[in-house]
Amino acid sequence: MSSFDDLFRQEASDRSIANASEQPFDKEAWAQKKQELRQWTYDKIDAATTAIAQNGEQFQQYFDVQSRFDRYSVSNALLILAQRPEATRIADFDTWKEQGVYIRRKETGFYILEPGEEYEREDGTKGISYNPKKMFDIAQTTANQKREQPQPLNDRTRIKALMDRSPVPIAMSDTLPSDVQALYQPDTRSIVIRRGMDAGDIFRSLAQELAHAELERGDNRYSRSAYAFHAYCASYM
């Protein structure tokens, strides 16, 4: 066999690749795949919410995740918990690349949800679509950084994790009725909470009022998952 035969095989292979790349873009197939991935993330959120409702260790692990990603939504913290609970710092491929950091070979990304375009519902109200976004943890990259040792969680950290994702302002009050520990006020879209309570009462009452605030934000599934989580928090403590 001629030693040049491999050149012809390579040429044929190159033509096949070129022909494949010239195939027209199938917008409907792309949209369908995107919708399936979005549904997959919603299912992950629901499954994670159910898991922590049934398992105290999972519930504690959620707070470990939320304390590290306090700027992320409840739903995204649940997605991180379900896919990569040990993550400490995450970004998408392009963001890591901009920092001169690259994803290591054979590493698999995981998904969170980011806000997309605003749309109008059938009842005339406005909603926001959420799109899956592939992320990678710093441990999956070439970054050579010494990780900080995680601080042990305490009651203050757990309450702060709950407060940081509040959709409304929270203020202390000395004027609430004696039988009310916290109250969501829809007219001012704010929560007031009694001054001087212990950690358990703060957590339980605040989680309940956050559930009310989340539910009023809208009827999309993203908000309902957050509502279900906060409602569970209120019943857990």
Automatic annotation (TrEMBL):
Pfam families: ArdcN. It comes from the Bacteria. Residues 1-14 have a biased composition (Basic and acidic residues). Residues 1-24 are annotated as: Disordered. Residues 62-123 form the N-terminal domain. InterPro entries: ArdC_N. This is ArdC-like ssDNA-binding domain-containing protein. It comes from Ferviditalea candida. The lineage of its organism: Bacteria, Bacillati, Bacillota, Bacilli, Bacillales.
